[in-house]
Specification:
Blueprint: E1 2-3, E2 6-7, E3 10-14, E4 20-24, E5 48-52, E6 57-61, E7 97-101, E8 124-126, E9 130-135, H1 149-167, E10 174-181, E11 193-199, H2 204-220, H3 224-235, E12 239-242, E13 246-249, E14 258-264, H4 276-296, E15 303-308, E16 321-326, E17 328-330, E18 333-334, H5 339-344, H6 353-362
Antiparallel strand pairs: 1-2, 3-4, 4-7, 5-6, 5-8, 7-9, 9-11, 10-11, 10-15, 12-13, 13-14, 14-16, 15-16, 17-18
Helix pairs in contact: 1-4
The structure holds zinc ion (ZN).
């Protein structure tokens, strides 16, 4: 793996219950010198995916997750490096970036018994796949926006590595790297971290985008993502930031009060296909963007940051891009998915996208 000129090191160990953990960046010379000293029972995963025939989508039922760690005291954070007093998920005394299998995964490796009725409308299947946690920094009080560009580059190298490796697992159809930030989003651990899901199916939103893309291709013989980006460039009023390799804009029909989509100028299917200069520029641009989000309301922005990558088997027309949005619409007001959004899937946005883009430009 490389980040610019810098090679990113990777080392793997197994945790006490058999889960994989990977150090990225500056790692212990001999990671095995720091074994996991905890007594852990094996991970129990009983997820299944049930088919909703009316909406035509899978729903994951993961009842075992109700018992997961919920907002522990700061001195018992399971994502800190281990100390003699606090044996955490990360056995080493320090790290830069760490990825490990979630102990409370939504998707699991072992097939669970399914209580669906084959041949009926009640269809279920094992929710195989994998859920991983990405610790962005050993510093408990940091956030992604606090990272240096070089450190963000190590996170990026980890995302690339996991995209490659998880796509190779049996039955995995899509790899999704994302971050939920802030208690307002429902984050259960405040330590700066993201997640990676490897799904056994193409997710509903990706499926809708693929269908839109296929329809556009049929009627115009062109790529929809390319033309959306071109239209935003031509209009210009919603562009927030731009570089040689990336453009960040508020989409014309933004769903959220402050929502920015970040596209590479040259379409690629996934993070793996990005060149080193594009990766390096992304880190600078993304950190700038996150810091602008935090300046919007004078306090840390609760946000969701979502990498959209081509599914494993449908790669031709899909364009890698990042969607970043905050649910905060005013200093003391959050945007909830209430009746119209949750009941009908019909979004209403109180902030005009052009005004959101102007605001974000001015916060530089
Ligand atoms: Zn922590």
């Amino acid at each position: 793996m490389t980040y610019g000129d810098q090679r990113v090191r990777k080392a793997e160990i197994r945790l006490a219950d058999g889960r994989e953990l990977m150090y990225f960046g500056a790692i212990p010379e001999h990671p095995a010198d720091y074994p996991d000293r905890r007594q852990l029972t094996p991970v129990q995963v009983q997820s299944q995916a049930r088919w909703d025939p009316l909406l035509g989508e899978w729903v994951i039922i993961a009842s075992h997750r109700q018992d997961r760690t919920f907002q522990p005291a700061a001195d018992q954070c399971p994502l800190d490096p281990s100390t003699p007093e606090n044996l955490t998920e990360i056995p080493a005394p320090d790290y830069e970036v760490v990825v490990f299998e979630n102990r409370f995964p939504t998707l699991g490796a072992q097939p669970a018994a399914c209580d669906g009725d084959p041949g009926s409308l009640l269809v279920a299947r094992p929710a195989i796949g994998r859920c991983e946690v990405v610790c962005f920094s050993p510093r408990h009080d940091a956030s992604f926006a606090d990272l240096s560009p070089a450190h963000a580059g190590i996170v990026m190298a980890a995302w690339v590595d996991r995209t490659i490796e998880l796509a190779r697992l049996d039955g995995v159809e899509q790899v999704y790297c994302f971050e939920n930030r802030g208690g307002e989003i429902g984050v259960t651990l405040s330590h700066p971290h993201g997640q990676i899901y490897a799904y056994p199916y193409v997710t509903p939103r990706t499926d809708r985008m693929l269908q839109a893309c296929a329809g556009y291709r049929r009627s115009t013989e062109r790529n929809l993502f390319d033309d959306v980006l071109a239209a935003e460039h031509a209009d210009g009023s919603r562009i927030v930031l731009g570089g040689s390799y990336w453009t960040a804009f508020v989409p014309y029909a933004a769903h959220w009060p402050y929502e920015v989509h970040v596209y590479p100028r040259e379409r690629v299917p996934d993070l793996v296909a990005l060149g080193d200069p594009a990766k390096a520029e992304f880190c600078e641009l993304y950190l700038d963007l996150l810091r602008r989000f935090d300046r919007l309301f004078g306090k840390p922005a609760p946000y969701i940051s979502a990498w959209h990558q081509a599914p494993v088997r449908y790669r031709d027309d899909f364009a890698l891009h990042l969607e970043l949005f905050t649910i905060r619409r005013a200093p003391d007001k959050l945007k909830y998915l209430a009746g119209s959004e949750s009941g009908m899937g019909a979004f209403a946005n109180d902030v005009r996208p052009e005004a959101a883009a102007k605001r974000l430009r001015e916060l530089g």
